[in-house]
Amino acid sequence: MKFLQILLLALVCLFFLPNTLNAQTGSGKISGRVIDSKGNPLDGANVALSSKKDSSIAKLELTGINGKYNFEGINYGHYEIFVSYMGERQPYKTLILIDTQHIVIQLEDLVLNEKKIQLNEVNIVQKKSFVEQKIDRTVVNVDALISNAGTTALDVLEKSPGVRVDQNGSISLKGRAGVVIFIDDKPTYLSGSDLEGYLKSLPSSALDQIEIMTNPPAKYDATGNAGIINIKTKKQKISGFNIGVNLSLGQHKYTSTNNSLDFNYRNNKFNVFGNAGYMNRNGFADLTILRTYKNADGSINSNFDQLSNVRKTGYGFNSTLGADYYQSEKTTWGIVLGGLLRYPESNILNTSNFSNVNYVPDSVTIAKNRESSEFKNGSVNLNFRHQFKKKGPDLAVDLDYIAYRTNNDQSFNNKNYSSDGILKSDELLKGLLFSDIKIYSAKADYTHPLSESLKLAGGIKASYTKTDNIADYSSILKNITYVDYDKTNRFKYQENINSAYLNLNKDFRSLSIQMGLRLENTVSNGHQLGNIMKPDSSFKRSYTSLFPTLFLLYKLDSLENGQLRFNYGRRIDRPYYQDLNPFISPLDKFTYMVGNPYLLPSFSNKVELSYIYKKKITATVSYSDTKDQSSETIEIVDGIYYSRPGNISSTNVTSISLDAGFDPTKWLAFQFYSELAFVHSKSNFYTGLLETKGTNGYLQGLFSFKLPSDWNIQIDGHYQTKITSAQFVYGSKWGLNAGVSKKISPRASLKLSISDIFYTNINSGEINNLNLTNASYRNLGDSRRGLLTLSFRFGKVNSNQSRYEIKGAENEMNRVKQ
């Protein structure tokens, strides 16, 4: 900690060293305007100031609505200007001289030729890289991958560099658990199967980018030991009225659809936008679990083989409706309403075979389990943004209200037969589960440029969360209903988090520095009401923590062919709201899910060092140290599996990764990602000391072929080695996907993709550290499927200003399981 304090102090001093590093900064100023051939100012043109001496880029600017640009702090010397607009680059050979006689220069208007900017309908073609690297994040462009068409947000995440999704829908980043998922800078507050269901209900056609932040800046909530994945949805930037439609038909063992519509209307000071989607769930999973029970001396006692045929059906709707009012060029007011409805159903035929040491059948249990659910989510966001000046300062305020409500109707019918087929017992367990979560959040962010190269930002946030969970279970034996007090209960939880942050950005000639400090105070309390068989219980916690962040980007040469990137951050993982719920919920007669109200928050420190070559190849070495990481744990009591979240005392992850993208020809592009990680976990456990070490690797590749007549073909795939993580060993797997697209017209396109062509992306693994038990599993699902997607758009296509992206309640939504 002393080292960190000294480092931070040194960097603060570095920001304000008078005339030391700033001696290289001159006092010259160059300004002007970019217009088209008709004299109209061009908004969003890129203007680059290039040194005549070595052709290095001295400054970059983006024109505003009035087409103006302004360069300040220019050294003495000769310069040229380059302008880029809509992907076209046009040089201006006028020689510009900055000397003692020409410190301030006002250039004549730079006129771009008509042929450079004319649009044919909406036919703007600009090739995007699949992956882009920035100082504090990796950006994935969703539409750059054809096989993403017609899929869901969860499918897109699985194909993103360093992101893995396991058989339970849990998401990890570069081998680390504890990823927080954001949608448009707003947390989902969800985890586990609930988060999986939510992401599966979000069509990929609504997504624009995936931002992967292993060490997020201080303006983001400190939650997420592995980092933050921010899913940015598409927001149209065109005036008039326009509609986009995406229709998708999927086929595997069953047929499913995932369709969406978005619209936008801009007129003068008003902008109204929205989207709506419908999807139906129509899938399956065949889960096999093998368990071997042993005696105290290690010899085999008995065997238990379980096969579950899971049929997944249901449907869901999602929608967003928003409006912006541009009071002036500097002031914007906005409102966004969001909603999600899901009605998933699961029917499970479960066959459990018990046999002795020689696999001679002893008994068979046949279970018919059913779950019918209703999931509702509604949200309201009010936002305000004001720019005091064109280049800042600016103020952004967000007020959020988010509500989740879940109803589950469960039925578990178990019939046990002897080895000769005689019915021994017939049990029926019914359950009604209700969950209500309400989240209130207020946030303000202020950014103040102190100079052209120095920017200060700060903000405050307060959030309040209230949850209420009810479980009513009853057993029916011989037509007599009994209340099951072991599983029936009610749990209430409240949490208040107050936070503030400061963030400082400084750019030198070759070095960019971003450093921040965030303060968070948490007060929480939980109350389990109990019943006539169980007493009340409650807990209360209060803690305050500091979370520093540091980002360094050093350019090794003026052309930025080589760059070094370093980042450090301290993070926290607070337990998911549902994980704190102490209820016992059955998956079947032999497997139960149990919450843990005694879960502790976990803290981590993470360091990364990267080398970026020509912005195409990124090599990274990273190390993280996590205390009390929350992980799924399995305990066996009297032959029954109890799955509950628990704290793992110490988890260390060391990894190296390589991310590369190449465009060797105009018709071929290649993207590659590889990772090697070493994971060491150590903790006290049900069976004594748990200590595991494992090395795992991950490979991911993508080929894109651009063919004549607007045809495109893409082939991508991945390979994952075995992964040892605490109590689990996940089996190796691989998958190959392919896609083809055809641009039918400037407004319509057709895409066909096939995922997991060889049906090899199958989850399997082993569960260790069980009391006198060995266990393994294999889950065969609907990973192989074909998708046909038709996309088209109607309406006007004139470019206009973009709406303000809301960034309100950012942390709490990610702690709700959807």
TrEMBL record:
Keyword Protein transport applies: no
Keywords attached to this entry: Cell outer membrane, Membrane, Receptor, Signal
Leader peptide range in chain numbering: 1-23
Chain ranges of the TonB-dependent receptor plug domain: 136-227
Cellular localisation: Cell outer membrane
Gene3D superfamilies: Carboxypeptidase-like, regulatory domain, TonB-dependent receptor, beta-barrel domain, TonB-dependent receptor, plug domain
Domain Outer membrane protein beta-barrel as annotated: residue spans: 386-791
One Pfam family of this chain: CarboxypepD_reg
Entry's Gene Ontology cellular component terms: cell outer membrane
UniProt key word Signal: yes
InterPro entries: Beta-barrel_TonB_sf, CarboxyPept-like_regulatory, OMP_b-brl_3, Plug_dom, Plug_dom_sf
Protein name (database record): TonB-dependent receptor
